[in-house]
Design goal:
Order of helices and strands: EEHEEEEEHEEEEHEEEEEHEE
Shape: globular
Distance between the termini: 60 Å
Largest sheet: 7 strands, mixed
Helix content: 10-25%
Strand content: 35-45%
Length: 278
């Protein structure tokens, strides 16, 4: 007997790609469980499936930086913050933070397919009664229109969003003169693609430097990051989705000289709307 739950939960992560660099990702998680029926006529109560799996994913890979530790140019070392991840290709970056902020994978590259298989094996280490096999598939949200990938950290967040390098793949909708403007959406999504969004308050060092350094302390510990300034967007406030929407609305409105409405998502099915301009 097989029990399945589509869109059981979602994962929001960042990952290091040897060809693209730091990438934000958001995936639906679809799950199948094989096993035998109990006396109650069930394999696993649906009311228990979701919290059991979600709690394990939330406490593991979700809201972490996925690090393919065997990729070229990557080094992983202990440091006073916990772990230091350094990269060389396609650009130099260093991220420091507590160990729980990272998921180390002994691979040369991260893929959603391989990660789904890995997480399923982790779930089967201590399976529920009568469950004989678990399959977990991670898939992108189907987006008809513009989407952008970004990474950030929120030091004031009470949960795992405080980790300095976690990210999302998000829809972007922009209204101009009461109508969605596909051209503006595509252009801004392309500009935001694979960028690191940082609060100006957390930036340290010289604005003229080609490298951006940022640091903050959060409830989970100390976090620090260093990467090319060209791969960053510095916002004058925390990089919550509310501020991202407002920042984009202001920038697009200034460029167009018109009233602009922006609907920015934070991963899947959640986000914020803002308006700006004349």
């Amino acid at each position: 007997m097989t029990l399945f739950v589509n869109r059981l939960t979602q994962l929001d992560v960042s990952l290091w790609c040897p060809s693209r660099g730091l990438i934000g990702a958001s995936w639906h998680a679809d799950v199948e469980l094989d096993g035998s029926l109990g006396e109650d006529g069930m394999l696993f109560d649906f009311g228990e499936v979701k919290p059991w799996i979600k709690s394990r994913l939330d406490g593991g890979a979700d809201h972490t930086l996925l690090v393919p530790s065997r990729a070229p140019g990557i080094s992983v070392q202990e440091c006073r913050e916990g772990l230091s991840i350094r990269t060389q290709l396609p650009y130099p970056m260093e991220v420091r933070g507590p160990r729980q902020a990272f998921t180390l994978l002994p691979w040369q590259a991260v893929s959603s397919e391989r990660l789904g298989e890995h997480l399923a094996k982790e779930l089967m280490r201590r399976p529920p009664p009568r469950v004989e096999a678990i399959r977990l598939a991670l898939r992108d949200e189907a987006i008809d229109g513009a989407a952008f990938t970004y990474s950030h950290g929120l030091k004031r967040h009470a949960g795992n969003c405080q980790r300095i390098a976690h990210g999302h793949r998000s829809r972007l909708e922009i209204w101009r003169q009461g109508q969605r403007d596909a051209g503006l959406e595509a252009r801004w999504a392309n500009w935001l693609a694979d960028r690191y969004l940082v609060d100006a308050e957390d930036v340290i060092g010289d604005d003229d430097s080609d490298t951006l350094h940022c640091h903050y302390r959060a409830p989970q510990g100390n976090f620090a990051m260093r990467l090319p300034r060209s791969r960053c967007a510095v916002l004058p406030y925390p990089t919550t989705v509310e501020h991202i929407a407002a920042w984009l609305a202001e920038r697009v409105a200034k460029e167009c000289g018109e009233r602009i409405k922006v609907k920015a998502y934070e991963g899947i099915d959640k986000g914020a709307m803002a308006e700006a301009g004349a």
